Every structure is written in structure tokens, then in C-alpha cells.
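Example S7 (C-alpha cells).
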């Protein structure tokens, strides 16, 4: 069965956060999704990997080409969604385009933050999870190993990641638009993951009046807080203390919003309607989108931050061109490897057929020796018989081929049999 490299997904370029959050898969959902994908399509999906972040959900597959037309339905069904909601936002890449997309994603060329390093780690995690689920094979293993190699090459040979405006830095900029100097502000971080850690680093550099970390488990929150001389509290305590903070940055793995409209309305009243900046970096979102309608609350999502980040991307187009050139070259190399894989069964068949002939002739030689024949004569017969049998089929094809094909066949013979006399071959051609 022919297997193509296919990529299906949606990202911040193709879909708003309101759609992305509906198909985002947390870590505990990836394994069931991989199992469900292979169960739904059987042998038509040989290998699969799912990459799901706040900005993208993508399925990489080694699969039969016809599978692609059914993936939108499967993705909608798995997430209990109407296909019409997500289909306009989905993109599909086949073969070389799929390979190029993987290289660009890992290199940070497809990210909100041009050249971001975080996506490479996320992709490596996705590959590890697919491997643990038994969903990887030769094709995708080779693809991702090459992908990681290309990403390293792009990052070391170009300035693609230099002077980038990170999402965390963008969050600080948006807060400064409202408050100006942040040294009199109180900052609350909800969550204690990698993104919150990055944001805390940037906000701490602005010397705010205080920093609080709210997390489901205090242990992880305390580990982060210790780095920034911050305090901690549990998520269940948020309603009682939310009004104390001027800036709230949230990024958890919750499937449902944890900061609702009612809670924030109450906090706004207790603040006597002083401005509050809220940054929601989670997908699915941590903060109900209706909060944006409140007059004194400035709510920013990952898409809002992406627009700030984009301003810094435009100045590095030379690095982008250089990176794209590297990627184009490496795509060609990988596609050549894929093409060579198509002849592997042919080579295996040739080896197997040749071995059958060898075993047969070897057995004949052994019988001759057992009868007491001269070993030199046996060796002579063995070599002559092997040569004749190996050359019989190509000689037949050459002799019986039509005139229009013979020239091409003769031209190939020196490559297949480099020990042949090329001048003699040219004589036979005529």
C-alpha cells in the first residue's frame, strides 16, 4: 500500500482562538486521539503524530492519500463539533509540502513569535508521545529526526530568533500601555507552566509592587514563586483575592474557563472600577470572552499578543529568506530519500531471487563433490551456471525489446553491469 506524508490542521493563521480552543488537545487527550485515529482508518493510517499547542493543532500522518478527505469529519467527531465550524479553517499538506511545513514549524517560521524556540520542544514532546503510543514508524521517525536537524541548522546559521518580541514581552508592553510604569502594580499569575514562567521573568524585570502565583497545587506554584520573591495561593482562593491585582496573566491546562464574567465583575466593583489588565494565554481560554465587554477590564488573548509580536517580525525578512532557502534544500533531500524507499521492495525481491538461484546451484555443486568430481571442474561449472542464469533474463529482454526501447536499455547496461565492454555494447546497439 502506497503511503504518503500528510499534514492536517489549523493554526493562528487559519483560525481564530474561538475555533482553535475547540480542537485543542491537552496531554491526556493525545493518546486517545492517536488510538481513535488508527482505529477509525485501520491500515490506511500507518503512522501518526498529533501536535497541539495554543496556536495550532496538527496531525502528521503516513497514510493512504484517500484518507485526507475523511480527516475533517474525524476531527469534528472526535471533538464533538459540527464539521462546518472547523472545515473552513483547516489546511492540508501532502508529500513535499507536508515535509516543508514540518521544517518551517520546527524552525519557528510559522509561529506568532518568529523564530520562537518553544515550538521545537513542543514538537519533540509530541513525537515522544506518539512513539510511546506505538504510532510512529520508519517514515515519520525519519521525518521528525530530519525536522529537528533542520531546525537546529536554521537557528544556528540564520538570525531568525534574534531580537524577537516574545509573547511574554508583548504582554508586558500591553500592560505598560494601560499603567505606564509597572512598579506600582500588583501582578497575579494563574498557572505555573512554562509560559507563565516566561511571563513572570519579564514582569519581574519591571519591579512590580508584588507578584502572586495561583496554582492548583501549591508545591509547583511555590517552586516558581521562590524565583521571583513572590507569594502563592490556591486557585480556589481566586474569587476572594482577584480584586487585589492590577494585572492578571493566566495560562493553565483547564478545559473550561476558570475566571468567569461574574467573578471579574465582582472584582471590578471591589476595585471601584480601576483599570485591570487581563492576559489570557491559554487555549482553551481561561477567561470568559464576555469579560472583554467590561469597561474597566482590558482583556488580551494570544491573538491580540500575536498582532503586537508581528510588528517585530517585519524587520527580519532577510533572515526569513535565508531560512527558507535552507529548508527548500533540505526538503529536496528528504523527498529523494522517500523516493528511494519505493525501490526497496524491488531490491529486496532481486536479492531474494538471486539467493534462490545461488542456493540451488550451491546444492548442485555439493552433490557433484559428493560424487567425487574434480573440485576445479565443479567450481568452473558453478561459476558458469550462475553467470548464465543471472544474465539470462536481461539478455532476453535486450534481444526481444522493440527498436525504440533498445537504445535506452543499452544505455542503462553500463550502469547495471559496469564491468561490460562499452564499445561492444555500442556495436550491439547498431
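Recovered sequence:
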Amino acid at each position: 500500500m502506497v503511503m504518503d506524508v500528510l499534514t492536517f490542521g489549523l493554526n493562528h493563521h487559519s483560525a481564530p482562538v474561538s475555533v482553535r480552543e475547540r480542537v485543542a488537545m491537552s496531554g491526556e487527550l493525545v493518546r486517545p486521539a492517536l488510538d481513535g485515529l488508527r482505529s477509525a482508518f485501520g491500515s490506511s493510517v500507518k503512522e501518526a503524530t498529533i501536535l497541539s499547542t495554543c496556536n495550532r493543532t496538527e496531525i502528521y500522518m503516513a497514510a493512504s492519500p484517500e484518507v485526507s478527505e475523511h480527516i475533517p469529519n474525524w476531527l469534528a467527531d472526535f471533538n464533538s463539533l459540527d464539521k462546518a465550524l472547523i472545515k473552513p479553517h483547516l489546511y492540508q499538506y501532502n508529500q513535499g509540502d507536508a515535509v516543508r511545513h514540518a521544517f518551517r514549524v520546527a524552525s519557528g517560521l510559522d509561529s506568532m513569535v518568529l523564530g520562537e524556540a518553544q515550538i521545537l520542544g513542543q514538537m519533540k514532546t509530541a513525537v515522544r508521545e506518539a512513539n510511546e503510543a506505538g504510532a510512529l514508524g520508519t517514515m515519520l521517525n525519519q521525518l521528525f529526526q530530519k525536522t529537528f536537524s533542520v531546525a537546529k541548522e536554521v537557528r544556528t546559521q540564520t538570525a531568525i530568533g534574534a531580537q524577537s518580541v516574545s509573547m511574554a514581552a508583548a504582554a508586558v508592553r500591553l500592560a505598560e500601555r494601560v499603567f505606564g510604569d509597572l512598579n506600582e502594580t500588583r501582578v497575579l499569575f494563574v498557572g505555573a507552566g512554562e509560559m507563565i514562567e516566561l511571563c513572570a521573568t519579564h514582569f519581574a524585570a519591571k519591579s512590580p509592587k508584588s507578584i502572586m502565583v495561583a496554582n492548583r497545587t501549591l508545591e509547583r506554584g511555590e517552586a516558581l514563586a521562590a524565583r521571583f520573591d513572590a507569594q502563592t495561593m490556591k486557585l480556589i482562593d481566586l474569587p476572594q483575592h482577584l480584586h487585589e491585582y492590577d494585572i492578571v496573566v493566566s495560562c493553565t491546562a483547564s478545559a473550561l474557563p476558570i475566571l468567569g464574567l461574574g467573578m471579574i465583575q465582582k472584582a471590578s466593583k471591589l476595585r471601584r472600577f480601576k483599570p485591570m489588565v487581563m492576559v489570557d494565554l491559554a487555549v482553551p481560554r481561561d477567561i470568559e470572552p464576555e469579560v472583554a465587554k467590561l469597561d474597566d477590564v482590558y482583556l488580551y488573548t494570544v491573538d491580540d499578543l500575536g498582532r503586537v509580536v508581528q510588528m517585530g517580525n517585519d524587520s527580519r525578512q532577510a533572515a526569513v529568506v535565508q531560512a527558507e532557502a535552507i529548508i527548500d534544500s533540505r526538503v529536496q533531500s528528504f523527498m529523494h530519500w522517500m523516493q528511494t524507499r519505493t525501490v526497496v521492495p524491488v531490491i529486496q525481491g532481486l536479492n531474494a531471487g538471486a539467493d534462490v538461484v545461488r542456493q540451488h546451484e550451491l546444492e548442485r555443486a555439493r552433490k557433484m563433490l559428493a560424487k567425487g568430481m574434480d573440485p576445479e571442474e565443479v567450481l568452473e561449472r558453478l561459476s558458469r551456471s550462475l553467470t548464465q542464469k543471472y544474465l539470462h533474463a536481461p539478455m532476453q529482454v535486450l534481444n526481444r525489446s522493440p527498436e525504440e526501447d533498445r537504445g535506452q536499455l543499452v544505455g542503462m547496461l553500463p550502469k547495471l553491469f559496469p564491468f561490460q565492454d562499452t564499445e561492444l555494447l555500442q556495436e550491439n546497439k547498431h
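Notes on this example. Residues 354-422 form one domain.
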